[in-house]
Design a protein that fits this description.
- The complex is a heterodimer of chains A (144) and B (66).
- Chain A is mostly helical and 144 residues long.
- Chain A has one domain.
- Chain A has 4 helices and 2 strands.
- In chain A, helix 2 packs parallel to helix 4.
- The model of chain A has no long low-confidence stretch (mean pLDDT 91).
- Chain B is mostly helical and 66 residues long.
- Chain B has a single domain, classed as 434 Repressor (Amino-terminal Domain) (Orthogonal Bundle).
- The two termini of chain B are 15 Å apart.
- The chains are: A mainly alpha (144), B mainly alpha (66).
- The interface between A and B is small, with 10 and 13 residues.
Chain lengths: 144, 66
């Protein structure tokens, strides 16, 4: 965490805690689903947990990028966003050539798609943030 | 939290962009932006670094007036 400034650290701790609480909620809901309705939506329980963790991780990534706390101070976000965009695109493209649902259950092949989506979230959140900031700066100038 | 317009004014007086000030105090531009918007309360260490960079006192920038 040495390469992050105090605001970035604060944001990462804050959204790290939120993600953890979110993950706990997801795990509880999933547990209740399997307890009450005996529902199993993925091939194995381990895969279910992995996918739930991916959702919480996705939330953390999106919020960190949006709050400007994802990239180190010395990194160039544009370059890394472009790399993550192509990584995500490649993973998503490859994942569509394999089936990730079998007998109504999510299979291990979905990991590729989830990976792709997680990579893809970084540039997506970054672009949205840039757009929002530009609009905010424009409003600030107009206010003057 | 209210916007910190005094920080913005002090920065503009020295013709510094958010990025210039961020580089001077070793933080990201987003941090300076968050302080100016009033979204983030900086630590006293960062307040001092900002004041030194802008040649002003803590009172000038961060003391709340009634």
């Amino acid at each position: 965490m040495d390469n992050f400034d105090e605001y970035q650290k604060f944001m990462r701790y804050k959204y790290g805690a939120y993600s953890f609480i979110f993950l706990m909620l997801l795990i509880m809901i999933n547990y209740l689903l399997s307890l009450v309705f005996e529902v199993q939506w993925a091939e194995t329980k381990e895969l279910e947990f992995f996918l739930l963790i991916s959702i919480a991780l996705g939330y953390f990534i999106v919020m960190s990028v949006y709050k400007g706390a994802f990239f180190h101070q010395k990194y160039t976000p544009t370059v890394y966003s472009a790399i993550y965009f192509f990584l995500g695109l490649m993973n998503i493209y490859v994942s569509f050539s394999i089936s990730f649902i079998k007998d109504g259950r999510v299979t291990f092949n979905s990991i590729m798609l989830i990976n792709g989506v997680l990579w893809f979230l970084i540039p997506a959140a970054y672009i949205i943030r840039e757009f929002v900031e530009k609009r905010r700066d424009k409003n600030d100038i107009e206010e003057k | 939290m209210a916007k910190n317009l005094r920080l913005k004014t002090a920065r503009a007086r020295l013709d510094m962009s958010q990025q210039d000030l961020a580089d001077a105090v070793d933080v990201t531009r987003q941090t300076i932006s968050a302080i100016e918007r009033g979204d983030y309360n900086p630590t006293i260490n960062l307040c001092i670094r900002i004041c030194k960079s802008l040649n002003v006192t803590l009172n000038d920038l961060f003391w709340e007036e009634d």
